[in-house]
Write a structure and sequence with these properties.
Blueprint (H helix, E strand, L loop, with lengths): L2 H6 L10 E3 L4 E4 L4 E6 L2 E2 L7 E2 L9
Antiparallel strand pairs: 1-2, 2-3, 3-4, 3-5
Pfam family, one: Trm112p
Protein name: UPF0434 protein N8I74_15630
Organism: Chitiniphilus purpureus
């Protein structure tokens, strides 16, 4: 994922920053506890496509 793209992308719900989870190929919003998938190098920034993080799931640093 391009670092410059990651700098400008925000959560579509809360407009907060996103963290890149390279192992799961997801962009994670800590505030909303949602993970947006990255498919074929393209982030899918749709709420309907986001996965809710489990209460015990670590959201990174």
């Amino acid at each position: 994922m391009d670092a410059k793209l990651l700098e400008i992308l925000v959560c579509p719900l809360c407009k907060g920053p996103l963290l890149l989870d390279k192992t799961k190929q997801e962009l994670v919003c800590k505030g909303d506890r949602l993970a947006y998938p990255i498919r074929d190098g393209i982030p899918v920034m749709l709420e309907a496509e986001a996965r809710e993080l489990a209460p015990t799931e670590d959201v990174g640093a």
